[in-house]
Amino acid sequence: MTNKYRDKLSEGGFGAVYKGKLSDGCLVAVKVLNKAKDNGESFLNEVVSISRTSHVNIVTLFGFCFEGRKRALIYEFMPNGSLEKFIRQENPSDSNRQLNWETLYQIAVGIARGLEYLHQGCNTRILHFDIKPHNILLDDDFCPKTSDFGLAKLCPRKESMVSMADARGTIGYIAPEVFCRNIGRVSHKSDVYSFGMMVLEMVGERENVNAESNHGSEYFPQWIYKRLELDEELGIWSVRNEDDKQRARKMIVVGLWCIQTTPSNRPPMSKLLEMLQGNLDSLEFPPKPFFSSPPRLSTEVDVDSPSSLIPYQIP
């Protein structure tokens, strides 16, 4: 199927993904799980979770292989790869934005729709626990599809809280309650936090850790909150007209609501989707989250795809 693993698309903590072709000519992405790291839990999580889904913003699972210790997942092929490569540029001020603001905004809306479906549209609520640009795939038309359900948890629709023996996710996107339980219970609001961090990264294009940016080394979410609070210009280089400004401001406000430290202060995905699609003037200004910019880390929990964002430290 993969022509002897000749075309590698990506590699993560649990295995590599290869481009393949089915006998009918259909292109697929084949995720071959790492024998040394996978104990079967991530494989079962992915198969059980994604087999319960059917949504335009969730990647489609065509099938899987389970033969001895060989485990593979066969997904629809996404020609434009992951969102990560479109929003992470070494010198964004020296090149044109690869995705315009309309496309970025529509991607954010699509991801929100997919998460709302996972949280409210399935018979069993699915909590993803690893929302980040690397796990958002883009088709020919840049329609976003959430992928990689290896860390997902299932819970009844009437319940939103889950218990976990250990933290899971990627440094920079993990909600504070996941690793500091006295903040609140782990729930679907943990995905909301990760979504917000990702949306702010989409706006800032890694400027939050870029010491050469126009706001120096200050942490991007903190810097952009101050700009909004003082009703100043955004100061983002790629905002070129009023439409761009409206989309950027809407994404920033929604992102800041998502990253509230206390889970109960974060809106559910259904409300966030309304906010994204509604009028900017009707959006309530978010309270100030607790901000901190600790030393840069590249350590991850459960996964092996380093993030440029750092989680907020809790006092």
From TrEMBL:
PROSITE patterns linked: PROTEIN_KINASE_DOM, PROTEIN_KINASE_ST
InterPro entries: Kinase-like_dom_sf, LRK10/LRL21-25-like, Prot_kinase_dom, Ser-Thr/Tyr_kinase_cat_dom, Ser/Thr_kinase_AS
Cellular component, GO, one term: membrane
UniProt xrefs under Gene3D superfamilies: Phosphorylase Kinase, domain 1, Transferase(Phosphotransferase) domain 1
Gene Ontology MF annotations: ATP binding; protein serine/threonine kinase activity
Membrane topology field: Single-pass type I membrane protein
Pfam families for the chain: PK_Tyr_Ser-Thr
Every Protein kinase domain range: 3-291
Keywords: ATP-binding, Glycoprotein, Kinase, Membrane, Nucleotide-binding, Serine/threonine-protein kinase, Signal, Transferase, Transmembrane, Transmembrane helix
SMART domains: S_TKc (SM00220)
Subcellular compartments: Membrane
This protein's name: Protein kinase domain-containing protein
Protein species of origin: Rubroshorea leprosula
